[in-house]
Structure formats: C-alpha cells, structure tokens
Amino acid sequence: MRRFRAAPAATLAVLAVLGCGVQPAPRFRGVPRAAYGPPRPPGPLPGFGHVFVLVEENANFADVIGDTSMPYLNGLAQQYALATEFYGNVHPSIGNYFMMIVGYTITNDDGFSELVTRDNLVRVLTTAGKTWKSYAEDLPAVGYRGPGRGRYARKHNIFALLSDVAHDSAQARNLVPFTQLATDVAGNTLPDYAFIIPNLCNDAHDCPLKTADAWLREHIDPLVRSDVFQRENDLLIIVFDESRVDDTAGGGRIPCVIVSPKVKPGYRSTTFYQQQSLLRLSLRALGVTTYPGAAANAPDMDEFFEVPVAPRAHRASAGGSSRSNQN
C-alpha cells in the first residue's frame, strides 16, 4: 500500500493517546461531531454461542459500501448491521491487528518479529475458561509461527507473536489452516472465539475487492447460513484493517459489518468506533469482563443488538395481591 506523509508531532502525540485508550478520542478531521461526547454506560448484550472476527485489507469505506465491487458483503450489511463511522487506528496493517488482539498498536513495522508479552485476548480468554483458534488461509502447518510464506502473511496473524502462544505448545496448536474451519463447523467443535485470516489475495491486499467478495460468498456464506450459526446466535464481525486512501483518525474510515441473528436488522450506526471497541465486543459477547489495553475504556458496541425485554411484574387480578409473573 502507499505510504502516507508523516504527520506533525502534535498529531502523533494525540494518536498515541488514542491508541493507549487513556483519554477520549480527539476530534479528527472528517469524523462527525456527533461521534464525541461523554461515553455511554454499557448496555446489555444478548448471549452468543461463538464469536468470529474476519479481517479484510486496505479499503476505504466508500470503495466498498454501496459499490458494486462487493455485492455479497453489501448484502450482509443491508440484512444485518453496519458501523458507518468505524476507523482504523494506524498505518500500516500490523498495528491494527495488534489493537484487535492486544489493545495496543505495538509497532508500525510490518516486518516485526519480536514476542509480545503484554496482556492479550488469548490470555484473557484462557483465564476465563474460553477456547480460541486462528484460522489462517495458506498457513504452512498447524502451530506454524514462522515468517510469511507465499500468500500467508504472519503480520496478519499476530497470535503467532504472542508469548502466550509461542511458549505454550498447546496454545500453538490453535494456529490452524483455514480449511479446518469447515471441519470444525461440521463436527460441532468450534472454539468460543475464532479469528479468520484470508490469504493476501482473498483479503483484497493483492487482488481486487471482487475477488475478496467472491471468497466471502464461497467460504463464509455457508457459515452464516449454517444451523449452528443461526441456532446458537453466533456473532461474525467482518472488518477491514485500514483504509488505502485515508488516514483520518490514524487509519482511515473503513467498513465494519456485524452479522448475527441477534442484530437489529438493517441497523446503521453513526457512532465513532475503532479496533479497540471490536476487541471489547469480542470479549463481552462471550461473557468475559476483563479487557486488555485500550479495550478497557473503549466505547461499547451494544447498540447493534436486540436484547430481550426482561419480564415485568404486574398486579394479580384476584385478591389485590401482586407477584412477578413471566410474560
């Protein structure tokens, strides 16, 4: 992708604060004023069986949403829900992936190969008794933690750089080729949390958006339509890592589509979100209440979901007494 002109030092300082989640987001160019204000208290979420996060690459919101290049993804956005003011955190890619998993951008070097010891999604899920897997297309072998090969990019599979995974052979076995996903769906052996990584062509990094959309239709539509996804009220988040043509708010305005039987059908959010909110939602949806890094103070994304109304107490018709009844 193209390199952006270096930002002024003051801007970099502001973005650093945002990435650490220490203060509310500043008003970046192009972000609506309605996106800012006091944070909302978290609302309730419905129960979800599994959480899937699938990341596409390097596309501006307007090049995807409402464009003919990705008809399948647009269909999901129309049927389910869409975050219309979702922004990447940084350029290039790797910092956004770290934000989704660690809650910090960690590095701006796509060739980064050091182990990361910070608190992270794997550690939090494991502590909470939850399971996880990373399904990476063209991964050379189960547990592979080495550099990218062919169209497999380790910079998009940063689970391999977590010390929790690298130092634990059992955790490393959760790094699996994408082909394992269909097997796990069919065998009812899905983990609680699944991170899905298409290869460098099918994520639109090296190939056209229409190629990525065709891949989604072929490989993800069966998941969405599966009995397990619908019956267990699963949650799928399809998000791009960063914009190719925009650096607003650090990484530009990007598509984020929320798919679940529990979303408000056709819902459009105008709230400002970034990848740390996606991390927070991924954990909250599984009932986990510990959030790494910037996810601890990120805006909640509960507005997308239908939550059952709690039963109300009403007065009994006989004897003038009252009691709680299930409606």
Main β sheet profile: 9 strands, mixed
Per CATH, the architecture is 3-Layer(aba) Sandwich
Basic shape: globular
User: Under the CATH scheme, which class?
Assistant: Alpha Beta
The stretches of 5 or more residues where confidence is low (pLDDT under 50) are 1-30, 32-36, 314-327
Number of strands: 11
Instruction: Give the strand content.
Output: 15-25%
The CATH topology is given as Alkaline Phosphatase, subunit A
Q: What structural class do you assign from the helix and strand content?
A: alpha/beta
Radius of gyration: 20 Å
Structure annotation, total helices: 12
Q: End-to-end span in angstroms?
A: 56 Å
Say which CATH homologous superfamily is assigned. Alkaline Phosphatase, subunit A
What does this structure look like?
- The protein is of the alpha/beta class.
- The chain has helices spanning 9-20, 61-64, 71-79, 93-101, 121-127, 163-166, 169-172, 180-186, 209-219, 221-225, 227-231, 275-284; strands spanning 51-56, 81-87, 132-136, 175-177, 193-197, 235-240, 253-259, 267-269, 273-274, 313-315, 322-324.
- The strands form two sheets. Strands 1, 2, 3, 4, 5, 6, 7, 8 and 9 form a nine-stranded mixed β-sheet that branches.
- Strand 10 (313-315) and strand 11 (322-324) form a beta hairpin.
- Helix 4 runs parallel beside helix 12.
- The chain is globular and about 45 Å long.
